[in-house]
Amino acid sequence: MKYPILYRLEYWLARLFWALLAALPVTAASNLGAWLGAGLARVPALARRVEQNLNLVMPELAPGQRAAIITGVWLNLGRTVAELPHLRNFTLTERTPDQGQIQVVGAENLTKFQDSGQGRGCLLFGGHLANWELMYLVTAKLDQPMHVVYRAANNPLIDGWLWQVRKASSLGALAKGRTAARGILAALKQGDPVGMLVDQKMNDGIAVPFFGRPAMTAPALAQLALREHLAVVPVRCERLDGAAFRVTFLDPLAYSESGDRTADVAALMGQVNEILEDWIRARPEQWLWPHNRWPR
Hints:
- With about 300 residues, this protein is an alpha/beta fold.
- The protein is about 50% helix and about 20% strand.
- It has one domain (about 5-285).
């Protein structure tokens, strides 16, 4: 508790905001989040952070396209936060989803490994796209709950509360670090799936091309896959309209082992970054562009 008074104030304000959003219908909560996000988009410093990254890796954008993406990023982020109290009540569908629904595509790519009798877990990865908290919620609703790896919040009170929220819809919530590494290995040995978001900067990671520029990338996904010979399943989340989503479980990645582990890890993470880039280019307004992904 480095700042006990500030942490407690932040915690109770967050709980109050959560209660307010939970009292609203999901559509109203999501729309309120979009309205708040639109306000953030008009703050010059926040808009500039997104614009700098867009100029760096998508310089071909016209000014109007860039402005629309900047606004969309903050709208999506506002909706994502406002939807959190409602996510456990979302329902799954195979059709075009209504508000509060998630269309699921390719669920067989998740379940085939548990049905194969191999006794090994699999690795699932996604990015900070649309509402990224949906990945572990969807697997739980498909009766295939997974262990989820997340970045701990700076405020330990908020972190403990969100840990409970994630734990309620997963086999386990593991904060990134040494403890998570042990937990991941234990989960995989039990044959459980493990999911992680792999699109953020890791200062002590490895340099892997992302949007044509070197980006420090966490190698753990590839290291685990190569060490344990695991299937790696991409999980794409898209916001279709308001609080309606599509989550797609794609075919497992094809990767090989050359005997040079360093090169193999870099190659697999390069493949992962290419997939993430394709998703982001398709819906750039739904990615977390404020993150400082590339070194200046």
